[in-house]
Amino acid sequence: MGRTVVELFYDVISPYSWLAFEALCRYRHIWNIELRFRPAFLGGIMQQTGNKPPAMLPKRGEYMLKDMKRMAKYYQVPLRMFPDAFQHIMGTSSLTAMRFITAIDMTNPQYLEPLSREFWMRFWSQHEDISQPENILAIARQAGLSAELSQKALEMTSSPAVKDRLKDTTSEALKYGAFGMPAVVAHYDGKPHLFFGSDRLELLGSIIGEKWLGPVPSPKL
């Protein structure tokens, strides 16, 4: 039996996407899955579906601040919440960052995982900007990319090819029914199964016939 293809549609502006990303990275060596990273644009999904940021409801925002702290500890991901986190999100566009990640995916996909992780680290652990070109280049260097590759990818962010690729990936997520991120799509039993959020991975496992061993499973010997 072949591996089950599991696609993770994500945006680095989404903290829950980081949790799902790290958990799935751990399970790809335990479950019989082929994990595919699909960088997309959360802003486009929100606009197309009419969705609103959850923190626009004040009480939900208060809850999410507490919930993210608990989730970060449970998933063992160095995500640090801060009182004005949601204002920080609302004041930051991830479009250039996601185009940069897309450019790397198109040209040097071996860097996609460490680069995505470094963007999350910068924004959600160190609370630093990820939208300005100089900061994007610094993130890329930290992820192991050469100055030459980083500069080339930055220049590509304004190209039609990269813009179209990001639009197409975002449209694909919408086609599967995504209305936010992370959107996890498992291709099993001849059809796609959409799971929203980082807390549906146990259910994902049950659908594809795999056992959930917690967010930090022991690797197979």
What does this protein look like?
The chain has 221 residues and is α+β, with helices and mostly antiparallel strands. The chain has helices at residues 15-27, 42-49, 58-75, 85-90, 95-107, 112-125, 133-142, 147-156, 160-175, 201-208; strands at residues 4-10, 33-39, 183-188, 191-196. The chain has a four-stranded mixed beta sheet with strand order 2-1-3-4, with helices on both faces. Helix 7 (133-142) crosses helix 8 (147-156). The longest helix has 18 residues, at 58-75. The two termini are 21 Å apart. The mean pLDDT is 94.
Write the layout of secondary structure elements.
Layout: E1 4-10, H1 15-27, E2 33-39, H2 42-49, H3 58-75, H4 85-90, H5 95-107, H6 112-125, H7 133-142, H8 147-156, H9 160-175, E3 183-188, E4 191-196, H10 201-208
Observed structural traits:
four-stranded mixed sheet, globular
